[in-house]
Amino acid sequence: MSKPKTLNVIVIDDDPEMLVSFQTIFENTGFNLVTANSGLKALEIARKQEFHIAFIDLFMPEIDGLDTLKEMKKLNPELIAVMISGFRNEDMLEKALKAGAYDYLYKPLDVQDIFGITLKLAQRLGINNDLELLFS
User: Fold this and answer.
1) Which pTM value belongs to this model?
2) Which phi and psi (to 5°) does residue 8 adopt?
3) Which residue of 94, 113, 114, 126 is most buried, as measured by CB atoms within 10 A?
4) Which stretch of DSSP H or E encloses residue 82?
């Protein structure tokens, strides 16, 4: 993946409040944020648009976060995925890491944790132009 000009981020969670929280957090960052309320919807979107970072809820109806991750990685092997979960299920998180997840966060999410991991990943992708200012 070449150095992106802007960061494309997708958040996949069946909890509408979580999606709104991410929209609020990423407001005014200049990043392109897309939300999906299911794994199936996310895959539909990801077939049309490439994402650099995905925040994926582990436990969702229809298709869980682990299967969503696997399918998203088939579409874009360079996708950096961060799993999110309200449950401490070490077995599922271990499976997600083996399937290619970069990291995981537990709900309730801390805004600073989201900022921190996003900054780290953006810099890893070569986007570091005043990012700290965006999240201050």
Assistant:
1) 0.90
2) -100, 115
3) 114
4) strand 80-85
Nearest one of 20, 25, 21, 59 to 39, comparing CA atoms? 59
Give the number of domains in the chain: 1
Measure CA 8 to chain center.
Answer: 10
The domain that holds 84 is classified in CATH as 3.40.50.2300
In-domain check, residue 29: yes
- Tell me how far the alpha carbon of residue 13 is from its chain's centroid: 10
- Name the residue range of residue 52's domain: 8-128
Three-state SS annotation for 14-66: CCHHHHHHHHHHHCCCCCEEEEECCHHHHHHHHCCCCCCEEEEECCCCCCCHH
Each residue of 45-69: pLDDT tens digit?
Answer: 999 999 999 999 999 999 999 999 9
Residue 47, phi then psi, degrees to nearest 5: -75, -20
Residue 77 forms part of a structural domain: yes
